[in-house]
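Record 1 of the preview.
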Amino acid sequence: MPSASTPPATLEGTLDRITFYNEENGYTVGRLRPTGGPAGHPGASGPDSALVTFVGHFPALRPGENLLLEGAWVDHPDYGRQFKVLSHRVVLPHTAAGIEKYLASGLIRGIGPVTARRLVKHFGVDVLRILEDEPGRLLEVDGIGAHRAQTITAAFAGQKGVKDVMLFLQSVGISPSLAVRIHRHYGDGAVAALRENPYRLADEVFGIGFKTADRIALGMGVPPTSPDRVRAGLRYFLGQITQDGHVFGPRDHVERKVADGLDVDPDLVSAETENLRREGVLHLENLDEGQAVYLAPLYHAERSVAARLRELIGHGLGAGKDETGTGARPWSLPDRGEVTAVATEAGIELSPEQSTALLEALRHGVLVITGGPGTGKTTIINCLLRLCRARRLKWVLAAPTGRAAKRMSEATGYEARTIHRTLEVVWSPVGGLEFQRNEDNPLEADIVIIDEVSMVDLLLMHHLLKAVEPPSCLVLVGDVDQLPAVGPGSVLRDLIASGVLPVVRLTRIFRQATESLIVVNAHRINQGQMPLLNERERDFFFIEETEPESILKTVVSLVSRRLPEHLSSTAQVTDPLSDIQVITPMRRTIIGVEHFNSELQKALNPPAWGKAEIGGRAHVFRTGDKIMQIRNNYGKEVFNGDIGVIRGIEPEDGQVVVSFPGETGPRLVTYERDELDELVLAYATTVHKSQGSEYPVVVMPVSTQHYLMLQRHLLYTAVTRAKRLVVLVGTKKALAIAVRNNKLEERFSRLADRLRAL
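->
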């Protein structure tokens, strides 16, 4: 390395390709074509001497960008001579090759690799001036009609508006693509907004978190002890623990973590906690063990859920009045004889637990029904609907996800919708999220039945309860032993633990269910017993593989070849893409979600002539890829965890069309290029993301490499996702660890306490 007094070397050129990029810290290894050719760097020789290897920390770069790098030449013991970058900026290219790569990078809608090549061929290095000053001449180029010319012209004009933001942000290391997103959100006021408070980016622009906003702010000269920085740090940390499922955090813990993370005085953090409390952003509550700090919306939601449930209890249809207000109901509550008759008519034998659930459902304002697979939860719903139909009662069926709602519809024969659709959620950039069904416009139903309640978080339950007006009944059905919701709270667990609500626990496994080892083993796992393995002609198998590499190879082989060949003859698997799901506990490692997705994409949907591709943030997407939405997009009505298949890609326009299963059939959703970071490959997914879904076949690695995630409730949840076949691949040692480990995920929540206190 040069001494401190040695001036940095400079290197300018066109980015040829990225050979390595670490998304977590931005560490990049790339290949640059210097403006001066091979002579542009010392020691150049050989056939590949025109390219220079550079290393450093960057935001996401795009091939074709012109870079001006400052740094030093170093000799790496393994990789040879390379340029170590200390700082950089992006400049517009001025060679034909550089301009072509720049235009093909996707920054300008309507221009992809083919159109970029045609533009440069026709206009040469003058093409950028033509785009700015004479856009009408685009019609001279083959393949560009009036509509595409208009699209390109508008997009290029938009780039001019972005230029100031790009120049402003590049000085602190932010990529052009991120600058485009910031400009799209704030328009021409972007620079002014950032100068006022750069931390607003973390709250207002998707894809920009606190760490990125903090880097921008510090680069702009914001003092490390700025109150804005500490406030943003507090909101960020509380948002992080919310993502971990907590409703609040212990104040001492929160403030210590924020002070350590920002390297500021704890007293400064404590002062800003009080300021945010006074402004209504945070709420503090005194507990025996210290103070709890809430984000205000979660505090109000927790109080509201408890109060609303208390209001509904005892105000069900059993306590209701008719329209005359006399209290004489035009129908009677069911007795055990009627319940038995309804079940007999449907050809169903009810257990005493199920009969009790049906008797209680219309009597109480709220009823919780919980049980594992094969215990008859769906049977109760169907019999309950028969009782309602006999009394001409109105009902609403809903579930947290589209897949769960579709399953509910198939099981009952009646329409079920997602909770969001049931509550008629609308989204606008100005007004944000609005639930049109609420206390002023409640659901028009005598009974509301919600399935898969273990997936419902505190905020969604809050909005649901606001739309259920006494004397309507609310029946909550779910499996409390599955993972809690991805969002804040353990709602189902807390409702049961409170001891306040009527709860029916279903424990009997029905005879037909015992024919499935999936059901039997799910209950064995839940009771801490090893599952029964590899019984002939059954639906639950274990393949012993010790090394992670061999587990990976076996799983890929099973999904892409062995299972489809074996099961297609019995119609158990017709399409490995939709019928087989790999579920794994962790995202990283060689047998984590990310690596599985890369390998399964190669096996199931490799590159092919005529198959369109487009680069996403962390993946190359192809037509035919199985993908998952990873955030709620209310404008598109696609939600976190929804799985679809890419049906079309338009590289020139940067558009991707995805088919998602809807409540009444497939529906197509279009994504623009800058929305692709909402999507990830979904050949493999985490256990958490699989909640609420069912798949014909589940394949799951079970390895000590996932030691921290070898937990009973994770294994139980994964196994219960399968309808026809489970295949575990790994070691029995790891399987035994998971079965024994019954440590529950503790979440900071006071819902049960609030219910008991009311």
